[in-house]
Amino acid sequence: MTVQESLIERAARVYDFGAHLRAREVVAPKVLPWERGVCAPAEAGAQLGTVVVSHEPPATGPRPSPGNDGGWDDTLAAIPAEFLSDTDDDGVEPWDGPAPGIAAIDRTMLAEKGMLVPGAPVGALAEEFRLVKRQLLLTARDIAAGVAGADKAADTQRRARTILVGSGKPGEGKTFCAINLAISLAAEREVEIVLVDADFAKPDVMASLGLTHTPDDSPGLLDVLADPTIDPETCIIRTDVPQLSLLPAGKRSHSDTELLASARTARVLDRLLEANPARIIVFDTSPALAASPASVLALLVGQVMLVVRADRTTEADVHAAVQLLDGCDEIHLVLNAVAYEPGRGRFGSYYGQGE
After folding, report:
1. Contact 126, 184 (CB under 8 A)
2. What is the pLDDT of residue 154?
3. Residue 91 Rama label (left phi>0; alpha psi -120 to 50; beta)
4. What are the DSSP calls for 1-27, one per residue?
5. pLDDT tens digits for 44-88?
6. Tell me, what's the pLDDT at 122?
7. Element (H or E) spanning 134, and its range?
8. Would strands 192-198 and 330-336 be described as parallel, antiparallel, or unpaired?
9. Coil, helix or strand for 333?
C-alpha cells in the first residue's frame, strides 16, 4: 500500500534538503515554557526567557539535484540567477561579482546546509526564527524602556541592541543559530545587523557564509581591541544581503579574554552602536564551558541567547553555562534539534498548504 506524503511533511522539507535522502527526524516547532530558576539557582541573577525551538540539520550530506522533490527548486528560485550561473550557456550573463567592497554571501551554500536563504520562500525554519527574533526584539525594547536615571538609560538603551549567541559546549548549533538569527533580523525594516565572529579560538562565521577570509585579509575585533588607533567602523564588512554586515574575529591572540575584559571593549561596543542608532549587533561567541571569552562578553551585552541541543546538552551543562553567563540579566534558551513527530504538525507549514 502506498502512503501519500502529507502537506505538512512536504512543507517541512523546504529547508531540510537532505531529509528525503536520509532517514532522520527533524525539528518540532513547539514553544516550551521554562520557569525562571529551573536551570540556574535564583541567586545567579539571570532571567531565563522562553525556550524556542530551532533546528540544525547535519552540516554534510549529498546535495539534491534540481528537480528532486525536496523544496530545492523552490528555494533556489529565490536566489538571484547571477549567483547560480558560471557560464552563459543558460542565457544568463556570468556574474562579475559584487560591487567593490561588498562581500558576496554564498546563497547556494546556505541552501545546501539547510540554513535560511535571504529572499527564499517562507518555510518552517524561517517562521521559527521569526519567533526567536521577535522575543529578542521585544525584550530589547523592554530593556531600553525599563531603566531609571538619564546616564544609565543612555548606556542601557545602546546595549539593549546587543545579543550574544552561545552554547555550553561545542557542537550544539550556536553558529548555525547566530547566522540564521542575523539573516532573519536583517529582514526587519529600518535596521542594520552586524554579525560579529567572537569565537576567537575557532572562528567559523565567514567560512559558513562561503567567504574566503583570513585574519591577514582585513582586521577584525581582536585587532581593534589590541590597537586603539583602529576605528572599528573600518573593519565592518558589508555584504550583498541588504542590511547585513560582518565583523571578523581578527588575528588570533593568546590574550583574547584579557582584551575583552579591558575598558576598550566597552568603548568599541559603544562606538559601533553610536555609529548607527538602528544597528543591532549579534555576537557568535565561544562555548561557555569550553572557553572564557563568552562569560566576559556576557557582562557587556543586553541579552544572551543560549543554544541548548536536545539530543546532546545535559541539564548539568545548562546549569553551568547559565551560571557562567549570568553577568547578563536576560538569558533566553533556544532548544535545538528536537525530534519532529509526524502527525503533530510543524510550525510554519501553513505556507506550504497552497502547493
Report:
1. yes
2. 66
3. left
4. -PPPPPHHHHHHTSS-TTTTTS-----
5. 344 555 455 555 554 444 443 333 333 444 444 444 444 444 444
6. 87
7. helix 124-145
8. unpaired
9. strand
CB atoms within 10 A of CB 256: 24
CA angle 151, 156, 159 (to 5 degrees): 135
Q: Is residue 222 within 8 Å of 200, Cβ to Cβ?
A: yes
How far is Cα 319 from Cα 324, in angstroms, rounded to an integer? 9
What's the pLDDT score for residue 15?
A: 40
DSSP state of 171: T
Averaged pLDDT for residues 291-311: 95
Residue 206: which residues within 8 A CB-CB, separation 6 or more?
197, 212, 213, 246, 248
Instruction: Determine the Cα–Cα distance for residues 28 and 223; give it in Å rounded to an integer.
Output: 41
Residue 225 CA: distances (Å) to CA of 30, 251, 259: 40, 11, 6
The SS3 call for residue 246 is strand
Match 533546528 to its residue by C-alpha cell.
55
Q: Find where cell 562579475 sits.
A: 96
Name the pTM for this structure: 0.74
Question: If you count them, how many residues does the chain have?
Answer: 355
* pLDDT score of 96: 56
219 pLDDT exceeds 60? Answer: yes
CB count within 10 Å of CB 147 equals: 16
β-pairing, 31-32 with 51-54? antiparallel
244 and 182 Cβ atoms separated by less than 8 Å: yes
What is the residue-wise DSSP string for 63-127?
PPPTTSSSSHHHHHTTS-GGGT-SSSTTSPPPP--SSTTEE---HHHHHHTT---TTPPP-HHHH
Q: Apex CA 177: angle with CA 113 and CA 41, to 5°?
A: 145
The listed range with the strongest mean pLDDT (106-115, 247-256, 280-289, 340-349) is 280-289
Q: Are 289 and 320 in contact (CB under 8 A)?
A: yes
